[in-house]
Amino acid sequence: MSRSRKLALVVIVPVLLFAAVQLVPYGRNHANPPDGALVAFDSPATKQLAERACFDCHSNRTKWPWYSNIAPISWRIQRHVDEGRGELNLTAFDPASEDMADAAGEAGETITKGEMPPADYLLAHPEARLSSAEKQALVAGLDRTFAVFVEREKQYKLEKERRSGRE
Asked: Which of 51, 103, 132, 156 could cysteine-pair with 87, CB 3.0–4.6 Å?
């Protein structure tokens, strides 16, 4: 095989594969569902910080950037949003959902540990990057907002520790 044919294959095959993955429909449903029950934030400041750092994945108010239409990036973004809304949806909050209530109780701790917002999200969304003081304010505000769930989560962890100590 000639060098020019090899080079053509090296260029053409990836281009064709890229074009083919664009046909996969997953990751392009960007119609935000209607809002449900908005979380009753403890203050406007907490709400503003949450909107800035959390709402794209944890609400029905996702802002879909242009690159969210390009596979395979669109798949990752769609999965993040689906999982985020499933865990804790700040614009369709259902305290009767055990998973959502657990996530609400752990929201501040998750931010404190640096697990949220994810690093790859922050690369594309520098406006979501919070200073140390803003993180502390958001964590404190979310802990106040979700106080009943934070307390329930603490009690659950204590009970779990007691049970494991007895075994």
From this structure: 103
> Is residue 61 within 8 Å of residue 32, measured between CB atoms?
yes
Distances (CA, A) of 102 to 85, 108, 136, 154, 165: 14, 12, 20, 10, 23
pLDDT, residue 20, reads 80
Domain that holds residue 80: 3-166
Q: Which of 54, 45, 57 has its CA nearest to residue 129?
A: 54
Residue 167: what pLDDT?
62
Instruction: Count Cβ neighbours within 10 Å for each residue of 49-63 and write b for 16 or more, e otherwise.
Output: bbbbbbbbbbbbebe
- Cα angle 143, 149, 151 (rounded to 5 degrees) comes to 80
* SS3 assignment for 49-77: HHHHHCCCCCCCCCCCCHHHHCCCHHHHH
Closest to 26 in 3D by CA, of 68, 84, 83, 63: 68
Residues of the chain with pLDDT under 50: none
Number of domains in the chain: 1
* pLDDT for position 65: 94
